[in-house]
Amino acid sequence: MIISPKLSLLVLLIAAGLASPASSGETLGRPPEDPPGTIVTKMTPEVVQDAMDQQLRSKFEAAAGTSSNILTARQAKDAGWGLVADRFAKIDRDGDGFATFSEVQAFFDARSPVKQQRANTAAKAVQVIR
């Protein structure tokens, strides 16, 4: 029996549709429940910022190594931290050829939406009396 190309294409399309997750009854569902006794931390901007600061500290220490608390552009590049390596001249504010954690943190804090939101809120809270 010879099957025409149009018919075989139609059969393939139908088979693909029947095998799709949407038609097989799969749904996205919900994540599993937390085990009993789990303490869930409310996600606030401060909690997120603290977690980001901890990740930044870990990344800095891994890139800088244990021998010092300074980071060079080469160390950042070797650690795969391209963002820091590419913008190292801006991060190294004093131009001494290495960056301290404070310099790296200041660079990222300047770009943090949480820090910017705090600054905007503080600016709105200032009342000028004349």
From TrEMBL:
<feature type="signal peptide">
    <location>
        <begin position="1"/>
        <end position="24"/>
    </location>
</feature>
<protein>
    <recommendedName>
        <fullName>EF-hand domain-containing protein</fullName>
    </recommendedName>
</protein>
<keyword id="KW-0732">Signal</keyword>
<dbReference type="InterPro" id="IPR002048">
    <property type="entry name" value="EF_hand_dom"/>
</dbReference>
<dbReference type="GO" id="GO:0005509">
    <property type="term" value="F:calcium ion binding"/>
</dbReference>
<feature type="domain" description="EF-hand">
    <location>
        <begin position="84"/>
        <end position="114"/>
    </location>
</feature>
<feature type="region of interest" description="Disordered">
    <location>
        <begin position="21"/>
        <end position="40"/>
    </location>
</feature>
